[in-house]
Amino acid sequence: MPIIMVTGGARSGKSAYAEQRCNDMGGDVTYIACAAITDNDMARRVALHRAQRPAEWQTLEQYKDFNGAAETYHSRVFLLDCITTMITNIMLDEPVDYDTCGTEEIARVEAGILKQIDGLIGQFKDSDKTLVAVTNEVGQGIVPAYRLGSIFRDIAGRMNQYIAAQADEVICMISGLPLKLK
After folding, report:
1. Reduced to 3 states, what is the DSSP secondary structure of residue 98?
2. Residues 42-93: pLDDT tens digits?
3. Residue 105 contacts by C-beta under 8 Å, 6 or more apart in sequence?
4. Which is catalytic among the residues 9, 25, 46, 49?
5. With 54 labelled, which of 32, 118, 132, 144 sits at a CA distance of 20 to 30 A?
6. In what helix (H) or strand (E) does residue 148 lie, and over which residues does it extend?
7. Cβ atoms within 10 Å of 74's Cβ, excluding its own
8. Neighbours of 26 (CB within 10 A)
9. Is the pLDDT of residue 141 over 80?
10. Nearest to 52 by CA among 18, 16, 5
11. 130 near 77, Cβ under 8 Å?
12. How far apart (Å, rounded) are the C-alpha atoms in residues 50 and 52?
């Protein structure tokens, strides 16, 4: 079954489109929620997302270590929201001072993120299950004014390119409208 990547800018309609695609596929859906609740604002956002999802969907609240998820959850369709949140959380898990670290440390962090993404995609690539992965397009915004933002943008951009190359279909959302790229 396919791997579908849904990308676009902030508030472009990515998540709503991905959720509708999963609904349209019918059957059981497992929602992989990558957000980590770090403050009251994030708690409200997570609560809103939970309330908007169909009640019959299973939810896996996790942003790494996906080994066996496709087997444990017997859904035919999996929706991961979102890759860039996953990357952020993994980066912040690392004991790295991004203001002073060297390129070797950044490369190590990026290799770990790639390993997590490979582990996720590998479960779906040759299976009868579908993965719909939502991610933010990070290359069309302003250049970050701080080093951590630049490192994140670079890693996220490379991971998006990597996932897009693996995906069977890539959709870019612009103002709530889907544009099929692949």
Report:
1. coil
2. 889 888 888 888 888 999 989 999 888 888 888 999 999 999 999 999 999 9
3. 96
4. 49
5. 118
6. helix 147-166
7. 10
8. 9
9. no
10. 16
11. yes
12. 6
Give me the residue label for tokens 């898990």: 93
Distance of CA 26 to the CA centre of its chain: 21
Q: Which residues are CB-neighbours of 108 under 8 A, at least 6 positions away?
A: none
Rounded Cα distance, 178 and 119, in Å: 28
Task: Name the pairing type of β-strands 58-61 and 130-136.
Answer: unpaired
- What tokens does 53 get? 């999802």
Place of tokens 């630049």: 150
Looking at residue 67, the DSSP 8-state letter turns out to be T
pLDDT 10s digits, 66-79: 888 888 888 999 99
Contact at 8 Å (CB) between 2 and 126? no
Contact criterion met (CB below 8 Å) for 157 and 29: no
Q: How many helices (H) and strands (E) does the chain have?
A: 6, 7
| DSSP 3-state of 62 | coil
pLDDT of residue 1: 65
Is 74 one of the catalytic residues?
no
Instruction: Flag whether pLDDT at 40 surpasses 70.
Output: yes
| Residues across the chain | 182
